[in-house]
Amino acid sequence: MLSIFLNPYFINITLILFLFIFLKYLKVDNKLINRIIIIVSAINWIFLSGFRALNVGADTINYKNMFERTSFTSWNEIFGFFLKMFSSRAQGRDPGYELIVKTIQLISLDYQVFLFIIAIITIVPLSIWIHKNSKEPLTSFMVFNVLFFSFFAITGIRQTLAMVLIVFIGYRFVLKRKLIPFLIISFIAFTIHKSAIVFVPFYFLSNVKSQRWHLYMALLMFGFLMIFRNQYFKILAMAGGFDNYDVYASGGPKVFTLLLAGIILLIIWKIDFNENNPKTNSYINATILALLLLPISWVNPSAMRVVMYFSVFLMVLIPLLFERFKHQEKALVYASFFVLILINFLTSIPNYNFFWDYSVIIGIAG
């Protein structure tokens, strides 16, 4: 039990909660509280992501191998990969990612420095996106901590970089209806990770005025797609650039599925569809798309990374929904939410080592 309380992930999440309570106790202005929470959360996640050891995250050591391979790759070869990226012989190549790696290597050939720079590149845009779009940054970061941190800040470097571009930066072009800049951003993201192509239709769907019947239809469609999920998976796999994923007979993300279905029901209950707010419409439409893509994750759990392009909008949608509760209900809703967050977090908290701890372990083992 003591090891849980000493776990950096647990310290991170409790630090932010106690900081929020302390600032509220001091009656600090809400806008200032939100800025402090965003800055502290961003610094914490840059620190945890950038200083992680090689044994933290399923792919951290694999990315190290890629990093070292790129150091021996010439600039001519990297630019040549761009010309070959649409060739069938270029399977597995993401030239945009290799270009980023090669550019960072101009600063340092140390992999730990690379991880720290990547942490800054990814966490800062995420934090700015939360600042600009979230009604309650604390809640947004709690959702991030529980649902997205293990992939976004630890595991999927290539897709994380693609998401930063197409979602957290590209979203401003979606709102302002600037198609050309959005397509340019999308193409760059596609060169980093081909799955980014699944987000492109969101530009045209985000501005659709949300209606209550859209959500009922989404729930019905979800049930239909779950029945034919294997066929659905094969179609989307070819179109979305993740056709290298295998079909598994394992179960899917049960808890996340229930959560997303519950969010849909909460939208139906709490959202006033006469408002026609562009941001609210985009959050709801993103959630619907996440629900409709979710069946493929029941075929292959790795396909959750495709769902994530849209499910990250839960970070800004959930605070918006909580705001719709009456003042008397709001305290109970927030308390229940944070208790569930902590329970879920404590039951699934992963191990973490800083790179200097890992070095000591390797030294002792050696």
3D architecture notes:
The protein has 366 residues and is an all-alpha fold. The chain has a domain at 206-324. The protein is 72% helix and 0% strand. The longest helix has 23 residues, at 111-133.
Write the layout of secondary structure elements.
Layout: H1 2-5, H2 8-25, H3 30-50, H4 60-71, H5 75-84, H6 95-104, H7 111-133, H8 137-155, H9 157-169, H10 171-175, H11 179-192, H12 202-205, H13 212-227, H14 229-240, H15 254-270, H16 278-293, H17 304-311, H18 314-323, H19 327-347, H20 355-365
Helix pairs in contact: 2-3, 3-7, 3-8, 5-6, 6-11, 7-8, 7-9, 8-18, 8-19, 9-11, 13-15, 13-16, 15-16, 16-17, 16-18
Brief rundown of the structure:
The protein is built from 20 helices and no strands.
Notable characteristics:
20 helices; single chain; globular; 366 residues
Strand content: under 5%
Radius of gyration: 21 Å
* Oligomeric state of shown chains: single chain
What is the arithmetic mean of pLDDT?
A: 86
Major beta-sheet overview? none
